[in-house]
Design goal:
Blueprint lengths: L8 H12 L7 E2 L5 H10 L11 E2 L15 H13 E6 L22 E12 L7 H4 L9 E7 L7 H5 L1 E5 L4 H5 L4 E4 L3 E5 L4 E8 L2 H15 L15 E7 L7 E8 L14 E2 L11 E6 L7 H4 L6 E10 L4 E4 L3 E2 L3 H4 L6 H10 L5 H19 L2
Antiparallel strand pairs: 1-4, 2-11, 3-4, 3-6, 4-5, 5-9, 6-7, 8-9, 10-11, 10-13, 11-12, 12-15, 13-14, 14-15, 14-16
Helix pairs in contact: 3-7
Protein name: Peptidase S1 domain-containing protein
InterPro entries: Peptidase_S1_PA
Organism: Plakobranchus ocellatus
């Protein structure tokens, strides 16, 4: 199928201009033709990762796809949870509120579709009458409804106006899930928080679908209760595994595996709340969950897992740094498991072990360490 069968030449030109207007970000931009055909064309004609040999269909992801020395069942189990929470975002309107010079600002007010990825991070029951458009016009609004919260990158969904013009596809694991009705689609509602500089956006969805809400809530609880402290340690202390789950080009979910890299000028990877990584991404991967596992055994990692496990970190994918041939995330946070929430982190032994680990012996170094600890706590608690 030629692209002229998918959309007109003028529309092709507009699509290409909008793609360029996002800079190094990685939304996919599609024409007005048949959506499935547009997505297939974008996938087959990708110039960044032609052939997509490193993109693993999510249902096929297994231990053999993890790096040697990191093939642990717990890591696969955790990533299966992340896969279940990953969503595709189809944004059908670009808001006039995007500032000049910002991603897609030249296309404010347009309805040229762009796609991205994101993930569900919270599910809760609604209170009072349902605020969805249908119930708002009804004399008997439903009292039984649910809120699903999604995180993505700010350049994918900028504000509530765009969220309300976004279709969120849950469980789009393969074409069969779409054809057989396992994929569920709902529109967005309101942006809960966003930050352009940090490139993060959280928005919510209102649904009456109790089965969908219950299913997602159970998966979110698996993340919250995952016991990393029961996991084996990495074989190598120098491994920094980085895994992304995304909808490249608007396709069903794919998984890519790479390595987290140091930020230039920073001694420790965990100091920055953004990360760079070799994990492959494509247009459509913007906003996707990027998960890192590190093999630190003591020190600051004690904040997260009682000194038994690696630092875990996740953030939305933001952009491709072409000059360096690496990708960069938006702002993320270290993973906080139940053992942290139930433990006393200001423990003398913790500080002694950490100070010894980083060879921090004088007061100047200790002050620096305390600043770093404060930075990490801000990542966890938002303080």
């Amino acid at each position: 199928m030629s692209h002229t069968d998918v959309t007109s030449q003028d529309e092709q030109d507009a699509v290409q201009r909008k793609k360029k207007d996002q800079g190094q970000h990685e939304c996919e931009v599609l024409g007005r033709g048949c959506e499935i055909a547009e997505i297939e064309y974008a996938w087959n004609n990708c110039t960044k990762n032609h052939g997509h040999s490193t993109f693993i269909p999510a249902p096929e992801f297994c231990l053999d796809h993890l790096p040697e020395g990191c093939r642990y069942q717990w890591m696969l189990d955790f990533m299966k949870i992340i896969i279940a929470l990953t969503v595709r975002l189809r944004v059908y309107y670009t808001s006039w509120e995007r500032p000049l010079g910002y991603t897609f600002s030249q296309y404010r007010g347009s309805s040229i579709l762009h796609t991205g990825s994101g993930w569900v991070y919270k599910v809760k029951s609604g209170k009072g009458p349902c605020p969805c458009p249908e119930c708002a016009q009804s004399s008997t609004p439903s009292q039984r409804w649910y809120v699903i919260c999604v995180r993505t990158a700010c350049h994918v969904v900028y504000n509530s106006e765009e969220a309300q013009h976004t279709q969120i596809d849950f469980f789009y694991d393969n074409e069969r899930s779409r054809m057989e009705g396992r994929m569920k689609t709902h529109p967005g509602r309101d942006v809960l928080k966003k930050d352009e500089d940090l490139d993060i956006c959280c928005f919510d969805i209102v649904t009456h679908d109790e089965m969908l809400a219950t299913q997602l809530k159970l998966v979110v609880e698996q993340v919250d209760n995952f016991k990393f402290d029961d996991c084996e340690m990495f074989n190598s202390k120098d491994q920094y595994v980085c895994i992304a789950v995304s909808h490249p080009h608007g396709q069903p979910k794919h998984v890519t595996v790479g390595e987290r890299k140091l930020w230039p000028g920073l001694k420790y990877r965990w100091f920055s709340r953004k990360c760079i990584y070799t994990t492959d991404t494509c247009p459509g991967s913007s906003g996707a969950p990027v998960i890192t596992f590190e093999s630190l055994k003591i020190g600051l990692v004690a904040l997260f897992s009682s000194m038994k496990c690696r630092l875990k970190f996740w953030a939305p994918h933001s952009e491709y740094l072409e000059d360096f041939k690496v990708n960069k995330s938006g702002n993320g946070s270290p993973f906080c498991g139940p053992q942290l929430r139930n433990s006393e982190i200001w423990d003398k032994k913790f500080w002694e072990d950490t100070i010894e680990y980083f060879n921090l012996h004088d007061s100047k170094d200790l002050d620096l360490y305390l600043e770093i600890a404060k930075h990490i706590l801000a990542g966890i608690y938002g303080i």
